[in-house]
Amino acid sequence: MNNNSSFGSIPPSPASSNSSSMASSEQLVLELSNPELRENALLELSKKREQFQDLAPLLWNSFGTIAALLQEIVSIYPVLSPPNLTPAQSNRVCNALALLQCVASHPDTRMLFLNAYIPLYLYPFLNTTSKSRPFEYLRLTSLGVIGALVKVDDTEVISFLLSTEIIPLCLRTMEMGSELSKTVATFIVQKILLDDVGLDYTCTTAERFFAVGRVLGNMVAALAEQPSSRLLKHIIRCYLRLSDNPRACDALRSCLPDMLRDATFSSCLREDPTTRKWLQQLIHNVGGNRVPALQGGGGFDHLMVN
C-alpha cells in the first residue's frame, strides 16, 4: 500500500521545481540553434523569460545562440524598405528582441552585449517610418532593449550609445511614434541627459541642442491637444536637466514653450506632485536674468531659429 495515498501526491520541492525549470530553459536554448525548432523556442523563452533564473548568461554563453538571434533580426531587413513586414514576422523577431533585452538587462552580460555592438543591429528598426502595427511593435520592442541598457546609471553605457548616434533615432520616434513608443524614446533621451557625459554631448553644439529642443517643443504642442501625463513627465525632466547647462538654460529662456509657463497642463499634472515640482524648478531656472555669453563659443542665441 502506498503510504501517501490518503494524502494525495506530494508536491515537488522548490529545489526540484528550479532544476526542472532550468532543464527546460536549457532545452529551449538548445532548440534556438535548430531552424526547425527555433520559432517555438523563441515564443516559449520570451513568454517565460522572467521565470528562468540566469537566462541571460545561458543565452550568451551557449554555442551559436546569439548568432541565431542576430540571424532572426537580419532576416527581416529586406522587408523594412519598402515596408512589407507582416504581423507574424514582427511577432517572431520581437520574441528574439525580448531575449536580447534579457541579455542587455543582466549585470553579467550587459557590457559583453555592448562590446559586441549588438545594439547596432536594432538601429535599422528605429529608422523605419511606417506607422502600421507590425512596425510600431518592432520599434517599441527595439526601444525596450535600449531602455533596459540605460535604466542602470552607467556612464560607459551612455558613452557607447552616444558614439552610435542613438539620439537622432530616438528623436525620430519621439516625432512620429505611438504614445508608448514616444514615451520610451523620451525616457532614453532623459537618461542620457541625466548623465554628465550625455548633457555635455547634447549641449556642445547649438545644432545638437536645438535638434532636441525642437522635438521637445513640438511634443509639448501636440500634448496640448492630446494630453499624456506620463509622456509630459519625461519631457519636463528633459527640459529641467537641459537647464543645468548654462548655455542651454540661457537659450531656454527664449525657446521654452509658453504652454509650460502658463496653466495649460495644470489639470494634467494635478495628481503628479513630483512633475509639478520639476516644472516649478524649470521655470525658476530659466526665469532669471540672462547670463552673459560664455567664453569659448558664447551662447546659442546667434544660431536660434524661431
From TrEMBL:
What are the top taxonomic ranks of the organism? Answer: Eukaryota, Viridiplantae, Streptophyta, Embryophyta, Tracheophyta
Its protein name is Cell differentiation RCD1-like protein
- SUPFAM superfamilies the record matches: ARM repeat
Q: Name one GO cellular component term.
A: CCR4-NOT complex
GO terms classed as biological process = mRNA catabolic process
Q: Which family does it belong to?
A: Belongs to the CNOT9 family.
Q: Where are the transmembrane segments?
A: none
InterPro entries the UniProt entry points to: ARM-like (IPR011989), ARM-type_fold (IPR016024), CNOT9 (IPR007216)
List the Pfam families hit by this protein, alphabetically.
Rcd1
Region described as Disordered: spans on this chain = 1-22
Q: Which organism is it from?
A: Medicago truncatula
